[in-house]
Each structure stands twice: as C-alpha cells, then as structure tokens.
Amino acid sequence: MATPQFIVDLRRHIGHERLWLSGSCAVVLREGSRGPQVLLVQRADTGAWTPVCGIIEPGERPDQAILREIQEETGVAAEILRLVRVNVAAPITYPNGDRCQFLDHEFLCRWVSGEPRVGDDESTRTGFFDVDELPEMAARHRRCIEVALHPSDDVIFSSDADADGTDRKETP
C-alpha cells in the first residue's frame, strides 16, 4: 500500500512509534452467474488477497475514503449500502520497523459499474470471486467479508487486537 504523505511527514517526527490510523474497508458485491461475488485485490507488497482497504486522509469521511479507494485501486464504481462494522485491528509492525494500529470502518457496498483492473501500484491483480470460492486470505479479511455477507440490523463494534497489545508482523 502506498504510504500517504501525511504519514511520511509524521514519521519524520516520531520515527517507528505506533501510529493510530483510521482506515476503511469495502466488501463490494455483485451478482454473478452462480450467485454473489466479492471484489478482491492482491496486494503488491505481500501478495495477499484482501477486500479493498485504505487509509482515510485527514479531513476525509470514512465513506468517501472507501469509494475513492475502490475507484483508484480497481476502476470499479460502487455505492455504499451500509456500515457493517467498526473494528480495532491488531497492531502491525512492517518490515521497515514502522508500527501502526487501525480503527477500520467496514462497509457493505454494491457494484455499480466497471470491470476490475489494477489501478495503481498497490496491487498486482484484482477481480470478482464467487463467495464460495474465495482465495486464501488473512482471518481478519475473511471475517470482514463474513460480517458484510450476513449483516445485522446494528453496526458491530469489535476488536481483533490481543489484550496484551502484541504487534502482528506484516511480511512481504
């Protein structure tokens, strides 16, 4: 994922200390020939498959951020159906030593138009996958999809962070 300039600027002052960041994630659905399909991207830095996710820029609303990320990363136009979960992700340590932790806003979205394509240097592949044939992915991303596919009437507030605050390692 490309690092936004505001984070690069902050890192000059705080080094590798943990940053508390806001993120957005989208489970974009469309109807396929065999049922619902989910839009996924394969990250360029780790090779992992994920829903479309991104960092919320200063002053940007979470819903605006995820619609921007969907368009930038995949060329797909989508609309938000609802916010399904607000989740405290486990702290992350990247290979360069940078530490962060995300407050993720997870949205259920509907595909409006466009065929997925790689839109920037953050991913190497993108596409729609039948919900019963998703590629291997991290448990936190699979949970995001499960929650979006079976939304409750209320927004879920949750935490993937361990009680001890141990960082998970992000590896390429």
Account of the protein in words:
The structure is a single chain. This protein has helices at 5-14, 62-74, 139-149; strands at residues 19-32, 35-43, 49-50, 52-55, 77-88, 92-93, 99-113, 123-130, 156-159, 168-169. It is of the alpha/beta class and 172 residues long. The chain has a single domain (27-161), classed as Nucleoside Triphosphate Pyrophosphohydrolase. Strands 1, 2, 3, 4, 5, 6, 7, 8, 9 and 10 form a ten-stranded mixed beta sheet that branches. β6 (92-93) and β7 (99-113) form a beta hairpin. It is globular. 29% of the residues are buried. It comes from Cutibacterium equinum. This is NUDIX domain-containing protein. Keywords: Hydrolase. Pfam families: NUDIX.
Descriptive labels:
single chain; 172 residues; alpha/beta; Nucleoside Triphosphate Pyrophosphohydrolase; 10 strands; 42% strand; globular
Topology:
Layout: H1 5-14, E1 19-32, E2 35-43, E3 49-50, E4 52-55, H2 62-74, E5 77-88, E6 92-93, E7 99-113, E8 123-130, H3 139-149, E9 156-159, E10 168-169
CATH topology value: Nucleoside Triphosphate Pyrophosphohydrolase
What is the CATH superfamily classification?
Nucleoside Triphosphate Pyrophosphohydrolase
Average pLDDT value? Answer: 91
Q: Tell me the CATH architecture.
A: Alpha-Beta Complex
Number of strands: 10
* Biggest sheet descriptor: 10 strands, mixed
Low-confidence runs: none
- What is the domain total for the residues? 1
What value does the Rg take, in angstroms? 16 Å
Compressed to H and E, one letter per element, the order equals HEEEEHEEEEHEE
Output the CATH class name.
Alpha Beta
Strand residue percentage? 35-45%
Distance N terminus to C terminus? 11 Å
